[in-house]
Request: fold
Amino acid sequence: YPQFGIAAIDSQIKSTVENGVSALESQADQDKPAENHYPQYSFYSSFSDPYIGSDYISVSLVLADYTGGAHENPVIVGATYDRATGKPVTLDQALALTGMTLQEVACSSKQQLAQDQSTTPTGIWASGSDATADNYQTFLINKDSVVFIFQPYQVAPYAAGAPEVSIPRVK
Reply:
């Protein structure tokens, strides 16, 4: 996992990854995969696209576990922090950077997702981009935009990955 040399931020990122490992260990203690002839459980994490600005630090973490299904179960974490305070950035703060309401971001998101056939938010996937705080909790900030990330299965089939939409920053 990434470390940025800012203790408050580094400890939160470390804790996020360690919590993922602990959750899988607890699941394995409960399921007892070896005793029950299940496949071996595994966990991996990766990160990408760190933004280290004078205002924010933002990085995408992928925490994935495998418990014997058709594929691993990834969770995307938008680890985004106010550099001055070391505190996580809230959805309201991210929206303020775009100058848009959650409803406006959702409308723009649906338009962006519709441009790619693999992520068109229709049918069972339509509600995954509706204007609810839960749907927009995973985001990154960079110099020019706020990027909202949808979890696998949230707006499209697993094969589409974790679709993203980008909203320009005005602040």
